Structure of Putative F-box domain-containing protein:
Amino acid sequence: MFSLVPPMRRTSRRAAKGGHEVANQRPPEPVSSASLAGLPTELHLLIASHLTYPDALSLKFTSRHFFYVVDTGVRLKVAWLKERRSLHLECPNDRRCDLGSDLRFCRGSVKLLMQRRREHLECESRPGLGCLVFGTAACAHRRSLGQRCRSWLRSRLTIELWWFLLALLPICLGCIWMAELATWSS
């Protein structure tokens, strides 16, 4: 039988040249990196059973293996909607909320709800609610008001609207100037 690990060499207590003691040398042990994918499928199923719908959906689309292992069926969607309702958060109220498939379910308002969740916009929307993504007492990932306004301006304002605001600026400045001029003349 062949072994991949080289046999341990015994060395003398005193090295021939240096005269200092040398301990028994062993080959370095291989370092294994533990990952979620390396766990058995039974543990994958157990972990997936404790996830909420958005987390299970994210895990489902990380690899082909998790796509077939993680269940994002109707029961999980309904449980997520009931949890949102109990926390007094927004729930989809349009008629297009189809529980049949993930693609149809995530269209419309559910897509916006999940985006708000990813951006931690719902965290601490009520006092004492905490972080809804990580389940902690306080949300450390919520962006400041200035950052949220800048990202909203970048995403919502189109070029046409920027030109409109640019054209509106001289009109507003002219009105302010006329008001100042009227107070000086009287």
User: Anything to note?
Assistant: The radius of gyration is 31 Å. The chain is about 45% helix and 0% strand.
